[in-house]
Amino acid sequence: MLSIEPFMKGFKMEKEDLKYFAKVHSIESFGAVDGPGIRFVLFLQGCHLQCKYCHNRDTWDMNGGSYKSLDEIYEKILRYKNYIYPNGGVTATGGEPLLQVHFLISLFEKLKAVGIHTCIDTSGMVSITKDIEKLLSLTDLVLLDIKHIDSEKCKKLVGVGNELELKFAKYLSEHDIPIWIRQVIVPGFTDDEKDLLKLKDFISTLKTVQKVELLPYHNMGMYKWKNLGDSYSLENIRPANSDDIERVKKILEIS
After folding, report:
1. What is the C-alpha separation between 72 and 58, in angstroms, rounded?
2. Which CATH superfamily is domain 18-252 in?
3. Helices 70-79 & 101-113, crossing angle to 10 degrees?
């Protein structure tokens, strides 16, 4: 089991308070790429993975970001309701938003009460606890980032194998929760044809997949790594281009 406890040390408050406060990295009021329609995007602080291609390296540390209250975030969302309702909604991303499951339950309960569409952008690299089940029951859509379909390659790319995220995907399918599969296309890492065919086969076992999104790798977040004094191991890897994406689309048979 992948323990997230070491990553929560930056949350210096009682467990009960986790329902009412979040560690927030940033907020985007008019997001257009993180789910359907215009979306209020909440970037939560903290991540327990170490994705080599991460373009939000500054979201990893739980000690970063700033505390925001449930009421403060909810009231800000309501100020934008006319823009995000009814075709858009709210997306919680990160970092890894599921690290702050207690807060998201409280927030999503309030959003569902006023008819606002809820979405989580996640790796799914968590154990499915009762809290996770509760949150997913309040979630209209999951953007599931499949890190790598091969577990050993996944471990080399992000620090852990893919067992939890594949179980997470199956749970979503079994409980009729809509999924958009996301796959970052990193030349030389996630574009092997055999792996992609294996990914295609896995996706075919999931009954609630509505879309497969291919995200071309870019190195625009490299400066964040360097600002933090970290080495960027993919520095010599070229960004994915349109030819790469079209090739993968043909293999996965998606439009």
Report:
1. 23
2. Aldolase class I (3.20.20.70)
3. 40
